[in-house]
Amino acid sequence: MTDFIGKCGGYAVIDGGLATELERHGANLNDPLWSAKCLVTSPQLIRRVHLDYLEAGANIIISSSYQATLQGFEAKGLSRVEGEALLRKSVEIACEAREIYYSRDAKVSSAVIENRENLKQHPVFVGASVGSYGAYLADGSEYSGIYGDAVTLETLKDFHRRRVQVLAESGADLIAFETIPNKLEAKAYAELLQEEDIKIPAWFSFNSKDGTNVVSGDSISECASIADSCKQVVAVGINCTPPRFIHGLIQAIREVTAKPILIYPNSGETYDADRKEWVQSTGVVDEDFVSYVGKWYEAGASLIGGCCRTTPNTIRAISKALSSRSSSVTTLEF
Ligand code: MET
Ligand SMILES: [Zn+2]
């Protein structure tokens, strides 16, 4: 990951919200599979949204498998084989978007050499998303992190095992464990990566609703330490959390790990899990979001993007803010 970040110019831009962007384009995601529903109903729309994020400056695009689980597909009457094929498809769609992006780039540039340079400046990784067990429950419990005593470390490992194996062999560059709500699930992922000898790297991304702990109340330091001790984990951070909480969380994570820190906050709006909708007017507009970016970078985050309700415009603004920042730093150094 450090190498990739270096190739990107010292920081890498992560994409923005996928599910909420699919909705903005008219997809109805009111379904236990959420964005993964589009794997069946509108794969072209997923590809288009990935492409929009690449055009906006993203170096890392995250697949539509957040809520795609074999158990969820089975509940819809799909077989194990069909479910595994859909998991792979989520990564294939993202890889296709990357191909299209590169070929468009190649067309714009007539000189081959110049084009090679462009590609070097815009490396792209595809992350295979793994949402938490709470996301599969589709009852908002990835925002409470409370699974109850019946859910043990083994339950979580068994729940995630096959999906992680399939995604690890799907052609993705890394596994993006997203919106991890508690310590138990982080531990389950770390043990799975080791037990299954997963060959591609992973990142662990937690969510918080108070800026001190992850949503379950477990301390961010303990959660980030689990990520730090797992050798396959190449970056650790926070997603789907209001921007105002991010700075303190970066500082807490920095104290327990030297691994790259990733952050992709949501727009700051609140999600009403009962009504299954976002409460507008509680969030920050793109300009405000971007005013935070330099501070997050200075605090130690080197992978920065957006989560729910952020759009390609947010990512364009982040990308611009970071590039003007690094060019002004370069000027100062000269
Ligand atoms: C609830 S967080 C969702 C993360 C996922 N990568 C998405 O943007 O759809
Ligand atoms: Zn989100």
UniProtKB/TrEMBL annotation:
Signal peptide stretch: none
Keyword Zinc: yes
Domain of life the protein comes from: Eukaryota
Binding-site positions, Zn(2+): 240, 307-308
BP GO terms, sorted: methionine biosynthetic process; methylation; S-methylmethionine cycle
UniProt domain Hcy-binding: residue ranges: 1-322
GO molecular function terms noted in the UniProt entry: metal ion binding; S-adenosylmethionine-homocysteine S-methyltransferase activity
Name this polypeptide is given: Hcy-binding domain-containing protein
